[in-house]
Amino acid sequence: MEEDGxxxxxxxxxxxxxxxxxxxxxxxxxxxxxxxTALAAILCIAVNVYSTVRSFKHGYDVFDGIFRxxxxxxxxxxxxxxTEWSFFTKFWKVLEFSAGRGMLQxxxxxxxxxxxxxxxxRNDLILLQNIASxxxxxxxxxxxxxxxxxxxxxxxxxxxxxxxxxxAVKDLQELERRREELEALLIQERA
Length: 191
Known about the structure:
Elements: E1 2-3, E2 9-10, H1 25-58, H2 62-82, H3 86-91, H4 98-113, H5 123-148, H6 151-190
Antiparallel strand pairs: 1-2
């Protein structure tokens, strides 16, 4: 510690605070998986909308079209659930947990897979239905397994830690800014 010309004792060994705010790799992986799952659900939405239009337009099967409409609505719920929007999860508590989301994803995947062979010459539609449905079923199975392994608990604990760390960094920056302002006022007053 040394005294400056104004009689103020300062510790010159302390450098300005710099806090490294790196992302938690586990949370990054969870966000990436949620993004991939949302993409799979969007693919299921597209396939089911296309199948619905074909069912109603060509008169293949009205009941298949209605079934596809329900699949679209539930797939939209899957996409919203993957955003973990607190307003939405407040009303659907089961979707806070990965096992609940996984079961819903598997249900949408099975609904997308239903009735594929009725289109005869439309092998590209059947292939797209299979890809979309199995992709979402795999994501749902991974969610159920991660729910059984308590990854949701770990994820929520790390999210809380990340939020508290971010708040601590903001508070520290605010204190540093305030300290600099007070030092500037003290220097002006001494001068």
